[in-house]
Amino acid sequence: MFTIPILVLAVIASFSTKKNGIYKQERIGQNGIVFTIFKIRSMLLTDATNYITIKNDTRITKFGSFIRKYHLDELPQIYNVFLGTMSIVGPRPDVKGYADVLQGEDKIILSIKPGITGPATLHFKNEEAILAEQKDPQKYNDEVLWKKKIELNKEYIKNWSLKNDLKYILKTLF
Q1: CB under 8 Å to 120, separation ≥6 — which residues?
Q2: pTM of this prediction?
Q3: Average pLDDT over residues 148-172
Q4: Residue 56's pLDDT is what?
Q5: Is residue 49 scored above 60 in pLDDT?
């Protein structure tokens, strides 16, 4: 069902970025285990050490902006779900230096599989725009957004229910 749209998006992304249209990156998953996440490539430069992207980032192609706007770049993560490294709902998987350095009760976030969508994802659906308004986006991400994401994700885990997961899925789709 998702294979054909993913292939079409990957081919267009290949032309847009002049690189393989499927982007792979290491992320931190359940129990702190590193896994490979799949996305549709949306940027010209992906080897940058700064993982923070902001709205109108010059590294993002026009096609990349389109697929990011509608979160189509996330479609290949369905394969991560089939591989068992992700779930549909849960905390977003982070790059090294965030979830893998959680301490104390915050480590509960690593007790479940990361998700394609979840409370923090929906709360910060306009994260790139928020960061674009900041003088120091990296600092704001680390000191404000990351802390709020931890809070939202801990609350999600402590109050997990199938009903809530269905609500997050519906909110994501509509």
Answers
A1: 91, 92, 148, 149, 152, 153, 156
A2: 0.89
A3: 97
A4: 74
A5: no
